[in-house]
Protein: Type 4 fimbrial biogenesis protein PilX N-terminal domain-containing protein
Organism: Parahalioglobus pacificus
Amino acid sequence: MRNPKKESGVVLLVSLLLLLLITIVGFSMMDTSNLEVKMASTKELKAISFQTAESILDESLTEPGAIDLLGRSLNAFFADPNDPTWPTEDNYAYTGYDFGERDVDARGDSETRFLGTASTIGYSIRKGSSGIETYYYEVEANGLTVNPNISSNHFQGVFVEAPRVN
């Protein structure tokens, strides 16, 4: 027959080792979950930054106060076709994105550059004659989420048909 007093210490030691092992596994799982949360949060903020840049591009081309394709751009060509005076930079701020427990501050800016004239379908028919010219612009939009700093840069080409300056 076995002596129960000798075996009671072994059971305690084994149970303490199992408790230590379970604790270590639990802490490593928590570290993995924290990393996954950070990765998901960064991916979400990158998507917000992407959408901010896309919104800025859209506003730069469609908002009457930002870029007026039928007004200032054509007047700029009449003044000097090599240096049109489109607005060079517009700033946008999108505050108050509410995602439950946090508030995301997204902002950005856009810049429009004149790149020159461009050939289009039927260009050879019009070349050398007075009439319509196709001018090529590039719009750059930068979207940024403030904390943490995650940014997206987007470029879009814009062709504007306008009267030729001879």
Q: What stands out?
A: The two ends are 115 Å apart (CA to CA).
